């Protein structure tokens, strides 16, 4: 599905990614863990096509196409989705308007018929019910006035509506209490399928108690230093990142 080879990227002239190699097959859930400043969020932004990140070397193939040559909206239409660590607020744009426009834009690019208002409302209400979201949240401006947990549930709702083929979850557990974490994780797990892959970026093992990954990678100093199964997350929780030369107390 996605193959990253020797990916290097800079931000404001500083090299953050220093040679990422990663292959994710259909149906797989991979987790990337690492200390602050290791490049986790940079990797997610580079894959999503965010401005301000310069690719200096390497390649990313997405379903056989050059992802780095695609505009962000083309990546979304091709099935890539990024759930932000800090979801943006969009004053003046109702949640339903945003979701309907995003979904129909993707359907149009895929050559699928757009959903009318009634079809969309039926779909979005099915999805909100599973995430314990109210109709009132759908009427409000995107993320404006939402609590941290509501914003993350809203990100999960977007994913449930847009049905991406490859979803990147950038520290989705950030700012969530345990109840909100369980609701969000249940929503994410409901989207697992043999055709969909996920890249879960997190600091802590607790998220991986609820979204159990097939593979875990340690990212430090801009490179994947070690890969393993889900037991690697437990090992990191116990021992920290000291073996990778990271002093988190510094």
Automatic annotation (TrEMBL):
Record has ATP-binding as a keyword: yes
SUPFAM superfamilies: P-loop containing nucleoside triphosphate hydrolases
Keyword Isomerase: no
Coiled-coil ranges from the UniProt annotation: none
PANTHER family reported for this sequence: ABC TRANSPORTER I FAMILY MEMBER 6, CHLOROPLASTIC (PTHR43204:SF1)
Gene: sufC
InterPro entries per the UniProt record, alphabetical: AAA+_ATPase, ABC_transporter-like_ATP-bd, FeS-cluster_ATPase_SufC, P-loop_NTPase
Similarity-based family: Belongs to the ABC transporter superfamily. Ycf16 family.
Record's keyword terms, sorted: ATP-binding, Nucleotide-binding, Plasmid
Ranges for domain ABC transporter: 2-246
Organism: Azospirillum argentinense
Protein name (Swiss-Prot/TrEMBL): Fe-S cluster assembly ATPase SufC
GO MF annotations, alphabetized: ATP binding; ATP hydrolysis activity
């Amino acid at each position: 599905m996605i193959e990253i080879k020797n990916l290097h990227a800079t931000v404001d002239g500083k090299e953050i990614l220093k040679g990422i190699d990663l292959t994710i097959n259909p149906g797989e859930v991979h987790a990337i863990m690492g200390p602050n400043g290791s490049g986790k969020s940079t990797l997610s932004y580079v894959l999503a096509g965010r401005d301000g990140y310069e690719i200096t070397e390497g390649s990313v193939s997405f379903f056989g196409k050059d992802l780095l040559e695609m505009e962000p909206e083309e990546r979304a239409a091709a099935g890539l989705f990024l759930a932000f660590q800090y979801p943006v607020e969009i004053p003046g744009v109702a949640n339903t308007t945003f979701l309907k426009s995003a979904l129909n834009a993707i359907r149009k690019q895929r050559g699928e018929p757009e959903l009318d208002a009634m079809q969309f409302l039926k779909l979005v209400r099915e999805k909100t019910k599973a995430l314990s979201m109210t109709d009132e949240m759908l009427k409000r401006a995107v993320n404006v006035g939402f609590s941290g947990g509501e914003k993350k549930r809203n990100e999960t709702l977007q994913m449930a509506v847009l049905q991406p083929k490859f979803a990147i979850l950038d520290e989705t557990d950030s700012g969530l209490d345990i109840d909100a974490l369980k609701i969000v994780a249940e929503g994410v797990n409901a989207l697992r399928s043999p055709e969909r892959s996920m890249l879960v970026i997190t600091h802590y093992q607790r998220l991986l108690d609820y979204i159990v990954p097939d593979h875990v990678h340690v990212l430090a100093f801009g490179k994947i230093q070690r890969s393993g199964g889900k037991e690697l997350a437990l090992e990191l929780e116990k021992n920290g990142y000291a073996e990778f030369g990271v002093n988190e107390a510094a």
